[in-house]
Amino acid sequence: MPSYTAPTKDLQYVLHDVLNVSASDIPGYDELEPDFTSAIFEEAGKISSEVLAPLNIVGDTEGCRLENGVVRVPTGFQDAFNQMREGGWPGLDMPEDFGGQNMPYVVGTAVGEMFSAANQAFTMYQGLTHGAASAILAHGTDAQKATFLPNMVSCQWTGTMNLTEPHCGTDLGLMRTKAEPQGDGSYKLTGQKIFISSGEHEMAENIIHLVLAKIPGGPEGIKGVSLFIVPKFLVNADGSLGERNGVSCGKLEEKMGIHGNSTCVMNYDGAEGYLLGEEHKGMRAMFTMMNEARLGVGMQGLSQAEAAYQNALIYAKDRLQGRDVTGAKNPDGPADPLIVHPDVRRMLMDQKSFVEGARAFILWGATLIDQAHRKSDKDADGLVSLMTPVIKGFLTDEGYDMTVQAQQVYGGHGYIEEWGMSQFTRDARIAMIYEGANGVQALDLVGRKLAQDGGKHVMAFFNLVKEFCSENKDVEGMEPFVEPLKTASKHLQAAGMYFMQQGMKNPNHALAGSTDFMHLFGHVCLGLMWARMARASIEALENGTSDAAFHETKLATGRYYMARRLPATAMHLARIESGADPVMALDAEAF
Amino acid sequence: MPSYTAPTKDLQYVLHDVLNVSASDIPGYDELEPDFTSAIFEEAGKISSEVLAPLNIVGDTEGCRLENGVVRVPTGFQDAFNQMREGGWPGLDMPEDFGGQNMPYVVGTAVGEMFSAANQAFTMYQGLTHGAASAILAHGTDAQKATFLPNMVSCQWTGTMNLTEPHCGTDLGLMRTKAEPQGDGSYKLTGQKIFISSGEHEMAENIIHLVLAKIPGGPEGIKGVSLFIVPKFLVNADGSLGERNGVSCGKLEEKMGIHGNSTCVMNYDGAEGYLLGEEHKGMRAMFTMMNEARLGVGMQGLSQAEAAYQNALIYAKDRLQGRDVTGAKNPDGPADPLIVHPDVRRMLMDQKSFVEGARAFILWGATLIDQAHRKSDKDADGLVSLMTPVIKGFLTDEGYDMTVQAQQVYGGHGYIEEWGMSQFTRDARIAMIYEGANGVQALDLVGRKLAQDGGKHVMAFFNLVKEFCSENKDVEGMEPFVEPLKTASKHLQAAGMYFMQQGMKNPNHALAGSTDFMHLFGHVCLGLMWARMARASIEALENGTSDAAFHETKLATGRYYMARRLPATAMHLARIESGADPVMALDAEAF
Questions:
Q1: Strands (E), A313-458
Q2: A511 close to A447: Cβ distance less than 8 angstroms
Q3: Is B564 inside any structural domain?
Q4: Is B435 a catalytic residue?
Q5: pLDDT tens, B171-198?
Q6: Which one of A19, A78, A159, B474 is at 20 to 30 Å from B572 when CA atoms are compared?
Q7: Is A321 in contact with B171 (Cβ distance < 8 A)?
């Protein structure tokens, strides 16, 4: 069975050595001293390794079962969910007013990585609750907040998001679910939603569905979509649970992975619902959830890659097969461990350099969110909004590839379910699809985010890279970082320029290169993170750190990323600059 | 449920327009007139689409079951297997002396693509039989051939290959299975083999296991390995079946995919076996099987990509979602089909250009095998031997990626098992692992094949590309093919040069770039195939073909490959030229 060890040391390194959080003037960050975050991470790491990780393969093997309308979760899930609630983990970064601990988002993100790495399917129950609670927090009335948030923050009640219908996913304007006003402020919802994660289960007393639907007579298409709160059990005025509402799970989907999470077809048969936010402004309210969810999904890409990598590394050190061509490393044994072989090393270094770079990227993104929310910093908000599709799309594409590579390290055993490597791959696969398929992320990036606020945020990003490079160009040891980063950043700028010039003539010149652009952008971001980590480690070494080996390893891992992964940017640029013609040459009928 | 349509037209195009097989002087090729191969392909296509494809998802869902030592195959498999036998398909390219039809290997390969695309797990039962029969044909005594081949050629009996043991896969020198001589020419085999595809099942009267084992007292390691024929039922002198032999299935593995094929732990408890080939030369004999099997596995990469692509294309034309940004294409409908979107196009074009290029590559390889076998042409043998790891490693890595992309076209439905797209991905995953994991293919390519016969074969490959480019550089319409091919080929040569120069100093400089080299080589091969197809289609158009649309589509698809996929070669070269240092910088303990 695979194991999971929480990367608490590396999380500490990113927060304190690289991002220097406790020196930040973001409200709440002054508390984030190393000892304080270390205590939280150790605790979260413990529950991740000891409680959640052992249930991962159980969830995969047993899956969920629908019995007379009730969804049974895998053995052990209920106990673990109770432990999560008792530990107060679901409310870690939620407001104290509703029972949370009001920690910065960056702390919730670091902890979330561990939970998700240990057991993605399980962690989704509370992850979706967090997203739904955030939407109510942002758009709910005081009464709605008082009614729903305390129980959602504690995960006594869980939450869901209901967007997709059988005939519409990305194109939500085609939606058919109706919400008819009842004259008393409430609505009756009728329709069917599919792919509803955690849609029904037995672990919580109540489930609060956030549902997109159309109010009859409203505007056509996406402009006529509103968001509703639809509880599984109606809530009485005194807060106690009332009648069962007209919402039920019609079917559980059989999926490639995340078997431990219940993916439901939800039927709304005149279910009572309450408008969340304004009429016909449902997409705006939903995007509060979606943006948070997209960062969370990007984190799943990282977390599955991390869990898979940890096990591939153990196997590569343990499994004896073949000899080091430069001389036996285990001369007394029958063979050398796999890790001596350069091609196995390549796979491990790909994974290691991705995981550590992605961790820094996501945590940096989380500090920007804190800066946006806690300091109302619009520039930070714009920058993280620009990078959100990159975090979601690039990290899940790459994270998936890394799980495939980790599986490959195991050879034949990687294909056998009991070794657990297949599950990391199968679970990681969904992250490329849900919360907006990665092609939609690329479209969001190129079609919307690049030009947002007159292109101000992407310019800010370029300046940030430029300033970093000019500040560090003469620092000893930084050359293997600064030069490749400059080159990669130039490729990104050239791609942006190509889109501006050619996209005016034909938007397809931009759209045909959107996925390549997202990946190009992702590599520049990870290159920047590695350069920042290199700088931090060089400083630590100069300051006579007691842990020189750790920092030397960081530098070597970073040099690998710059030398071996960053050359991808030139390829992406070449593809982008080939324009729309090769892509769009054929009529649909010619395929 | 996914469907499968046999690509008979495209197979005909490659054989006749591109490879011009019936004009070849390879013995047996004169028969391969278009009408003749068309009749075969139509028949094979029919059984693929109508019999094998509908059983694909059945095999995945039901899997195999071990009941009291007997393996039950999925519903419908036995009937389909009988139909395959009745049609004479298993012996298509086997000698007439043993009941085969003696067709060229290229015909068997074309037909094999269809069977494998329709149902990989099912087709493995006969594919492994073919491989085992080929080994007996090449290394068996006349008596062994007479005893085993007629029933194996007809698939009355099936075959297996037994290499892996729990503690050894790639490093077969660690093998523990023993074969003790009985003094009567037979041996008693004792040991355990794992990952034995088709190891036990109820569809054949007998199963002929080819088993690697060590004769006690022989040389240490890989030099002391011999190959044995171990039948499930002993065969009496009159050819009838005798006693059950001491070999049994101890366990069926639960795998990520190919559920319809029985992957067995095989226990040998003093089983009677007969030496195949010479004592201690088992690896040589086994490689007859392995090389054929590696081409077959490369074909699985192509075939799963083809099957997945066909369904992604249907979905992309059918599913209405969003609008073409350049103007509605389906203005009377609620939305446009997915295929209007450039990023969806990109995915479809990646798949289409891979599949058609890979098909040409494999069929070209098959003609080289025919040339080697039927004309005893050592140069052809050397060239296909050089390309075998590329066919296996590159086509299965890329083929897998294409199934992932096809799944992505489906959005959320791609993750739901009933739509069948997950199965293509899960089934395709094994091809990167078995018959030598792709890292081992890369090692074989760089560590052995490049330098074989003094580097003669790789020089022959470069000359072939060079000659093609100089012959075609002034042909109208060939510029978008010749220029990128030249550049890519230069990258490949530069990489080879780097290996020669740096590998002398430290072999790790070559090995650390082996997988990148395999991919670089693969892109050059597919680039060459596209250039050859372009030339063939330009000629067809000049000659006033009645099917101009088909040839225009070929040219557009080829231009896509050259513009969008071939730029990967520069990235692979950059990675290779960064050498071993970034890869090997860390001590194993530092990870």
A1: none
A2: yes
A3: yes
A4: yes
A5: 999 999 999 999 999 999 999 999 999 9
A6: B474
A7: yes
